[in-house]
Design goal:
This protein is an alpha/beta fold. It has helices at about 20-30, 80-85, 95-105, 120-135, 150-160, 220-225, 260-280; strands at about 5-10, 15-20, 40-45, 50-55, 60-65, 70, 75-80, 95, 115-120, 135-140, 165, 170-175, 185-190, 200-205, 205-210, 215, 250, 290-295, 300, 305, 310-320, 325-330, 335-345, 350-355, 365-370. The strands form eight sheets. It has a five-stranded parallel β-sheet with strand order 8-15-9-10-11. A five-stranded mixed β-sheet has the order 20-18-25-22-23, with no helix packed on it. Strand 4 (about 50-55) and strand 5 form a beta hairpin. Helix 3 (about 95-105) packs parallel to helix 4 (about 120-135) and helix 4 runs parallel beside helix 5 (about 150-160). The longest helix is centred in the last third of the chain and has 19 residues, at about 260-280. The radius of gyration is 22 Å and the shape is globular. The model has no long low-confidence stretch (mean pLDDT about 95). Bound molecules: flavin-adenine dinucleotide. Flavin-adenine dinucleotide binds near residues 3, 42, 74 and 98.
Length: about 375
């Protein structure tokens, strides 16, 4: 609801919508289908084996809901200063980009006048534009990696159009100020991400926004003893978005952090459809093969694939490092089952490849190979 900027729905609806407009379309559809919604309710426990959740709200108190299948869609949360351990004092004026976005866009509260943003993720870049539009001066977006963490389109629309400097291979080494932030020191980093102190410079500012990554919200998943990927920090799923607990499905940012909501929708549509089929006893269960990361691939989702006589599955994945003119190749049993060319790949932008489900006789390896 706080994402009042456009940029949602470009691939799913072929339209540029704001966050509330995009979500509103699905909310309307769900309500028209008669879905019962419990707002202001917090799920405290998921029990996949018993097909039940325990939740709490003011009206009903502690409530047990049983079902034939469950879909996890808890999204993710922002990493904070504590997660990245920046040295210095602990003054007011340090916000995660998402909380600043909520204060500015929903609560009509301006968070500062001179702003530095740490992290070039999409939320950080979108907030750089928002703060400029609201009259603040954004001194720099500081990024430790030597490449952009978010989408290129956001760099163009949110930084370049507003002349906001992007400092790649830099980090914040210190925060100053006691009551309120007075400034930050930034420095270049070497190849081991260690700050080069001789390059340190001081930026006088009253606000620091952190856009340093999102963590899938999986405390409930962990407590339910569902298998979690060490790389995505989300539950491992198959192409039906089915977790290691057969009646529990998962979708969206709780599975892996997506840059575009359109991809979340594609996965969520699958999770809903197959959770319903499972509940109706119509989802056939067979032995699965695994998806395996090859060269320049950080992770693949889904992690497991159930072979079928027909149909296709879309594998979403992220690369480890940016590259140009590459071939994406999926292999199973030594045979190439899908291949496509890509002009540019970037860790900040999700890649995908579609594979046939009928030719799978062993694990599926995905490689991103430089074209010569
Ligand atoms: C600042 C920002 C800017 C973005 N800009 C764009 C953009 O321009 N274009 C684009 O395509 N995408 C954008 N995105 C990404 C997009 O918003 C997400 O991909 C999408 O919202 C993920 O959907 P989700 O349903 O997985 O999670 P969410 O939308 O995060 O929903 C998860 C929900 O689960 C609830 N929840 C969590 N735990 C519990 C619990 N225990 N009990 C009950 N409820 C719980 C949460 O309160 C939340 O309402 C942006 C995201 C952010 C944060």
């Amino acid at each position: 609801m706080q994402c009042i900027h456009p940029g949602f729905g470009l691939s799913y609806f072929n339209k540029e919508l704001t966050g509330p407009e995009y979500a509103g379309r699905f909310a309307k559809e769900a309500l028209e289908l008669g879905t019962e919604v419990m707002l202001n309710s917090m799920v405290l426990e998921v029990n996949g084996a018993a097909n039940e959740i325990i939740c709490i709200n003011r009206e009903y108190g502690m409530t047990r809901v049983t079902a034939k299948s469950i879909v996890l869609a808890m999204g993710c949360r922002e990493r904070t200063r504590a997660n990245i351990q920046i040295p210095g004092t602990r003054p007011a004026g340090i916000y995660t980009a998402g909380s600043a976005q909520r204060l500015v866009n929903r609560q009509n509260t301006m968070v500062g006048k001179n702003v530095v943003i740490l992290g070039s993720g999409d939320i950080g870049m979108i907030m750089a534009r928002r703060m400029s539009l609201e009259g603040a001066k954004v001194l720099a977006v500081v990024e430790i990696m030597d490449y952009l963490a978010g989408l290129t389109r956001n760099k163009v629309q949110c930084l370049d159009d507003f002349n906001i400097p992007l400092k790649l291979k830099h980090t914040i080494t210190r925060i100053t100020g006691n009551e309120r932030v007075e400034g930050v020191y930034i420095a270049q980093v070497d190849e081991n991400k260690k700050p080069i102190i001789e390059t340190e410079e001081y930026l006088q500012c009253d606000t620091l926004l952190l856009s340093v990554g999102l963590i899938p919200e999986n405390e409930l998943t962990r407590k339910a003893e569902i298998t979690i990927s060490g790389i995505t920090s989300g539950p491992e799923v198959n192409q039906y978005m089915q977790t290691s607990a057969p009646s529990v499905f998962a979708c969206g940012n709780v599975v892996h952090v997506n840059d575009l909501v359109d991809n979340v929708t594609v996965e969520s549509m699958a999770a809903g459809k197959y959770a319903a089929l499972y509940g109706a006893g119509k989802l056939e269960q067979k032995d699965e093969v695994r998806t395996v990361t090859g060269s320049n691939v950080r992770y693949i989702c889904p992690q497991r694939i159930m072979p079928c006589d027909e149909g296709k599955a879309k594998l979403f994945f992220r690369v480890l490092a940016p590259d140009l003119d590459v071939r994406i190749e999926a292999r199973s049993g030594g045979k190439v089952i899908a291949s496509k060319k890509e002009r540019r790949v970037n860790p900040g932008e999700m890649c995908s490849i579609q594979i046939p489900l009928s030719e799978l006789n062993s694990d599926i390896v995905v490689d991103v190979i430089k074209e010569v």
